[in-house]
Specification:
Layout lengths: L22 E3 L6 E3 L3 E3 L5 E3 H12 L23 H5 L4 H19 L27 H17 L1 E2 L6 E2 L7 E3 L5 E3 L5 E2 L31 H16 L4 H4 L15 H6 L2
Antiparallel strand pairs: 1-2, 3-4, 5-6, 7-8, 8-9
Helix pairs in contact: 1-3, 4-5
InterPro entries: LUBAC_E3_Ligases (IPR051628), Rcat_RBR_RNF216 (IPR047546), RING-HC_RBR_RNF216 (IPR047544), TRIAD_supradom (IPR044066)
Keywords: Metal-binding, Repeat, Transferase, Ubl conjugation pathway, Zinc, Zinc-finger
Pfam family, one: Rcat_RNF216
Length: about 270
């Protein structure tokens, strides 16, 4: 009996699926991930690249304490950092450049080197808190600039710890600066937790609480009203020094635009 060999070409076997022992649980999201896709801090705590990416992105765009922070994510309180080589695995070239730039800014700020701050108007070394004299050549420019600055300051919060400017687009009134300082967006005071806010159930925008005078956690500021009040206050303050300039219209009119009747518009065609 002759056995004939089969010359049929079979496809290659598929790559082996990682076994359970080849996978590791991320210390942040607790997902099971392949070991070779993990990153680790200097103390060996393992995390997936997605969690580390989110952590560093928050640092880049200023929503965490210690801007550009690369502290370990371990819930055990590990104070070791992630090596640059590990962080580099998580990002595209463009995002990596932003991270590098942010880290450089933090290093310069912490170094507290003299002579690095300059005036935005005259480009000379900073002369704060004294106003810049370069704009006083034109009284109209001086008034306009000071009114605009007052309107901006009315809606900007300044961190009591590091001086960074903060602006909230949405969310509750408990905000945190990238330096770690927490503050109330409503009253601008430094806080430590939610005990600063009113604990009573009510509709935030309807009426103030009848049981306490504490700040509301979810109250939304009327930005237009605040800006308008700041503008009026600034103009009133400048009226004594620049009476002629203040009498003119500063900025766009606050009155609604009145449309001409259709007949008048047709006659103009």
């Amino acid at each position: 009996m002759v056995v004939q060999e089969d010359d049929t070409e079979w496809p290659e076997a598929p790559p082996s699926i990682p076994q359970e022992e080849d996978r590791v649980e991320c210390g942040c999201c607790f997902e099971s991930c392949a070991f070779d896709s993990m990153v680790q801090c200097e103390d060996g705590h393992l995390f997936c690249t997605i969690c580390l990416r989110r952590h560093v992105e928050n640092s880049i765009f200023g929503d965490t304490s210690d801007g550009g922070s690369t502290l370990c994510l371990a819930i055990t309180g590990c104070e070791r950092i992630y090596p640059r080589s590990e962080i580099r695995k998580c990002f595209s070239h463009d995002v990596w450049l932003k991270y590098e730039r942010r880290m450089a800014e933090e290093a310069v700020a912490k170094a507290q080197l003299a002579g690095l701050e300059t005036c935005l108007e005259c480009k000379e070394p900073s002369h704060l808190p004294d106003p810049c004299r370069s704009t006083e050549k034109d009284p109209e420019d001086t008034v306009r600039t000071q009114v605009e600055e007052s309107m901006t300051k009315a809606v900007i919060r300044v961190c009591s710890s590091c001086g960074a400017e903060l602006f909230k687009l949405e969310g509750c009134n408990k905000i945190m600066c990238r330096c770690g300082q927490q503050m109330c967006y409503r009253c601008r005071e430094s806080i430590t937790d939610y005990s600063h806010f009113c604990p009573h159930i009510r509709a935030p925008q309807v009426a103030p609480c009848e049981e306490c005078s504490m700040c509301c956690l979810w109250e939304t500021e009327d930005v237009n009203k605040v800006v308008k009040a700041a503008k009026s206050a600034a103009i009133e303050k400048l009226a004594e020094r620049y009476p002629e300039v203040v009498r003119r219209q500063i900025g766009p009119s606050e009155d609604p635009v009145r449309k001409r009747p259709c007949k008048e518009r047709v006659g103009m065609i």
